[in-house]
Every structure is written in C-alpha cells, then in structure tokens.
Design brief:
The chain is of the alpha/beta class. Helices cover 47% and strands 11% of the residues. The strands form three sheets. The chain has a six-stranded mixed sheet, sandwiched between helices. The mean pLDDT is 97. The structure holds glucose-6-phosphate (G6Q).
C-alpha cells in the first residue's frame, strides 16, 4: 500500500493555491490577446490525436506547477507499477492490467510470475475463430438456420463498453447481423430486445466476469426459458448460448459448455474490459481484423502514456487540466461533447469509466481526502446538445469544462453536413471562451434592458480533441486516452481507481427487500419509516392486481 503525503500538503499544491487567484482573475480574451501564438503553443499532438488545450484558464506557470504536482505525486513510478503488473488495485489485491489485453504477441507482462500475454492471444484467436463462424453462417442454430441476431446480456462494464464500441463502429459492422444488448433487470429490456427476433436465429452472449450478477443471471435465465419454450429443443442451449466469464464453474452450472466460454482474468476490471473477451459482440459485429486494429490503437496510446514526457503526454495533460478545473476552479462536472453521431453512447461509457473509478472519498490507505475527487461526467453528441443544455454552459452560473471531440474526415460525407458540423463545434468552444461583451451587444443596437440577457461572460474552459477518421484504431486510442487520464487523476488523489465498493451496499439492501416484495407477509417491516411505507405501497398494488 502506498503511503504518501496528502496531495494538498505537497509543495506544488501549495504553490498552485498561491498561484490560483492570479489566474482566476484573468480572462481568456486577455490570455489570447497577450500571446498570439497561444492557440498553437498550448496544443499537443501524438499518435494521430490533436489535443488543443489553449482554451483552458491556465498560464505557462500553471502548467509548470501542475507538472510539478504530477512529479511529486510519484506518477511516473505508478505508471511503471501498472505496466509491470503490480497489484495497484490495493483494496482488491489485484493488478489492473487492461494494458495487457492489447499488448502485441511477444511482449512479456507478468502477474504472479506468469506471462499473461500468450493467454490473451490464445483467447483472441478463439474469439476470432468463433466470430468468423458466426459472421459467415458456419455456426448454425439448433434447427440448422444461420445466426442473424446476437444478443449480449451483461451489465455495467460487461455492457457499456460493448454497446459503445458497437455503436461507435457500426460503420464497420456486418449489416445483416442484428446486434442487441440487454442489461437492465427491468423486464421491458428483455421483451423489447427479443420481441421481434426468431429464436432459431438468435445467439445469446452471457457476458459476466463473475457470472453471479443478479441482473445478468436473471436475464440469462429468462433468455434460456424464452429460447427453450420457443424452440422446444432441450439441447438448444449449446448452439444458442456462449459465455464470457472468469467463472467456468458457474458457466457450466448454467448449462453452457465451457468449450463455448471465452475467458478473461481477475486482473481486468469490468469498466476496463471492452477489449477483452467482453468485446465478443464487438468482434462479431466488426470482424476480428477490425477488432485487432482497435487493440492496436489502445496499445499505441498505452505506449505513448508510458513513454512520453509528461509535458507532451496527452493523458497526463488531460488529467492535470481536469484536476485544475475540479480542485481549483471548483468545477463539479465535465461535459463530453462528441461531434460524431456514432459516438452517441460515448458519454454514457465515460460516466462509468470516470465516475466508478474516481468517485472515492478516501485515499488508498483509508484517509479522508481533503479535496474533491472525480467530477461528474455527462454529455450528448453535438449538435443536439446545442439545442438543449448548452444554454446553461454558456450563460448559467456554473463553470462546466467541456471536451469537444471530432473526427475531421467524415465516414458518411453528405453534402455540406460535415463542414456545418465542424463549424458548430469550433463556434461553441470559441463562444464559450470569448463570450460577447455588453459593449458588443450594445453596438448591435440591442435595447439596454435586453443587453444583460444577450451578454456572454465567456472565460469557460474547454479542450478540443481532433482525430482523423473514426476507425477501430482511432476509437482504441480515444478510449485509452480517457482510461489513462482517469488513472493520472487517481494517482494524484492517491485513490484506488480500480475498485468499486460503492455499488455493494445497494446490492445487499436489494437482496433483503426482494423477498419482502414477493410476499404479502404481514410481518412487521424493519426499515426506516419511509422505506417501510414505500414497500407497503408497492405491495398494495402488486397483490391487489392478482
Ligand atoms: C466495473 C464494475 C461493474 C461490473 C458489473 C458486471 O468495473 O465492476 O460495472 O462490470 O457489475 O459485473 P459482472 O461482469 O461480474 O457481471
């Protein structure tokens, strides 16, 4: 366990505290006017990603102090520890080795003395073989019909990554396959995902690291009943169910042949698993070559993060800026605004990656943290958001740093669409940074009483992340950029970014309440008076309707 001095007591933090009021009083208008090269200088480019951070409220001194903070926090040695396979997930005593999932053949990464890279590639090869069989129609259902529908059943990390990857890479997907996802325990999710599917043409992927998750196992049993009842063939499970898990015993118990199980390992965290076998649905959709290209993109970012000097290291700079906005400007949230329709589920994916990783209130050694940790991530694709919540970002009372993300080459070039899309993205960050002064509004002849309403304060920070074309490789780079930025912030706060104890209490309480909803039991309820009354209200409706 790492015991280091609290971040807020470090020399660099103290210096940043002294420095902050100076920057707080500066306007981006001034910072740009004083330095005509700012927009070129405050950028970083690596592995095909152009990162513009000139519109953050920083000076060269801010950057220097933030980099000093990173150095003082031991970030370099913590990165090395992660890549060496050390058990950096201290509360679960595990490595966090998602980087091994995309390591090329031949690289050696050991966990407990054993090189894990050969196993990773063995599973990838099996996935590739299976995906090819499904995509080509060689893998048939039990009635001899080819598989046309793939339904991934999983939740959290076993759902959000696959959904996001499928949506993001839909352009590359085999279009005669229908890919659906069931995560929620709400029966509606199952019914809506299956109501128009032919069971004889449907393959279920049960994606669960533990194979014990209540939602996933309930949906998996419902799927098995649905399939067996529809097809009326007791041996149908073998052709229509595969599993992705670390728990072979539970997979076998469910009735899935472990020959049809794709393995991963306890050193892969759920929210870091989209590039493991959990990505089987992605691979079936886009094919193994594209999947491997995505892994290569991840790996390029891993290498960049591991080797680039911090002042040119994209995830490090991104993480430091996020911390600056959060801990000094007290920004509570970050808006993720992809100007790319295919990335519509990217903000939802990032919510888990960032908030489950860094939503922690104690350090690795259990001490209360003296500053805010993970901010709230949210967002929608541009330009839709502009016609809804951007109002608050522009003129509300809160400071909301934004990540604008765009791919300069369109996948679907259509008339002027892409130019208009990009013009909007650039216009938004420009408007946020520079605003519109009362004088400018007055000069337009606006009546005095309307001037305050039409004035834009500006000085609202944003990053712009530009990539070439949305390819599987580019997606891998982008996801890894955020993964490592999250890690950077976690190291600075000295928290465990790889555990998620915060989800446990609700699970335990739900397990206690389930039987209380299933019976009309007259035994007194032992919750608080609010929960008791809610349960009684539910019971009334449930038992009256029967
Ligand atoms: C992610 C979390 C969590 C997990 C789900 C599903 O980092 O661990 O979201 O992925 O609870 O767990 P299983 O894959 O074990 O069903």
């Amino acid at each position: 366990m790492t015991t280091i001095a609290p971040l807020t007591q470090s020399v660099a933090w103290q210096a940043l505290k002294v420095h902050y009021p100076k920057v707080q009083s500066l306007h981006l208008r001034q910072l740009f006017a004083d330095d005509p090269m700012r927009g070129e200088r405050l950028t970083a480019e690596a592995i095909g990603i152009y990162f513009d951070y000139a519109k953050h409220r920083i000076t060269d001194e801010t950057l220097m102090l933030l980099l000093q903070l990173a150095a003082e926090s031991g970030l370099r040695s913590r990165i090395d520890a992660m890549f060496r396979g050390e058990k950096i997930n201290v509360t679960e005593k595990r490595s966090a080795l998602h980087i091994a999932l995309r390591a090329p053949k031949g690289q050696v990464i050991t966990v407990d003395g054993e090189d894990v890279v050969p196993e990773v590639h063995a599973v990838l090869d099996r996935m590739a073989d299976f995906s090819t069989q499904v995509r080509s129609g060689v893998w048939k259902g039990c009635t001899g019909k080819r598989i046309r529908n793939i339904v991934n059943i999983g939740i959290g990390g076993s759902d959000l990554g696959p959904v996001m990857a499928y949506e993001s890479l839909r352009h590359y997907s085999q279009r005669d396959l229908t890919i659906r996802f069931i995560s929620n325990i709400d029966g509606t999710a199952f019914v809506e995902a299956t109501h128009d599917l032919d069971a004889a043409e449907t393959l279920f992927i049960i994606a669960s690291k533990t194979f014990t998750t209540l939602e996933t196992m309930t949906n998996a049993h419902t799927a098995r009943d649905w399939l067996l009842n529809t097809l009326n063939q007791p041996d149908a499970v073998a052709r229509h169910f595969v599993a992705v898990s670390t728990n072979a015993e539970a997979v076998a118990q469910f009735g899935i042949d472990t020959a049809n199980m794709f393995e991963f390992w306890d050193w892969v965290g759920g929210r870091y698993s989209m590039d493991s076998a959990i990505g089987l649905s992605t691979m079936i959709a886009i094919g193994s070559d594209h999947f491997r290209a995505m892994l290569d993109g991840f790996h390029q970012m891993d290498e960049h993060f591991r080797t680039a000097p911090f002042d040119r290291n994209l995830p490090v700079i991104m993480g430091l800026l996020s911390l600056w906005n959060n801990n000094f400007f007290d920004a509570q949230t970050v808006a993720v605004l992809p100007y790319e329709q295919y990335l519509k589920r990217f903000p939802a994916y990032l919510q888990q990656l960032t908030m489950e990783s860094n939503g922690k209130h104690v350090t690795q050694d259990g001490q209360a943290i003296a500053c805010q940790t993970g901010p709230i991530y949210w967002g929608e694709p541009g330009t839709n958001g502009q016609h809804s919540f951007y109002q608050l970002i522009h003129q509300g009372t809160r400071l909301i740093p934004c990540d604008f993300i765009g791919f300069v080459e369109p996948l679907n070039p259509l008339g002027t669409h892409h130019d208009v899309l990009f013009a909007n993205m650039f216009a938004q960050s420009e408007a946020l940074a520079f605003g519109k002064t009362a004088e400018e509004v007055e000069a337009e002849g606006i009546p005095a009483w309307l001037v305050p309403h039409q004035t834009f304060e500006g000085n609202r920070p944003s990053s712009t992340i530009l990539l070439g074309r949305l390819t599987p490789e580019a997606l891998g780079k982008l996801v890894a950029l955020y993964e490592h930025s999250v890690f950077t912030q976690g190291v600075l706060w000295n928290i465990d970014s790889f555990d998620q104890w915060g989800v446990e209490l609700g699970k335990a309480l739900a397990a206690r309440i389930i039987p209380e909803l299933e019976t009309e039991d007259r035994n007194p309820l032992n919750h608080d008076s609010s929960t008791n009354t809610l349960i009684q209200h539910y019971r009334k409706a449930r038992f009256q309707s029967h």
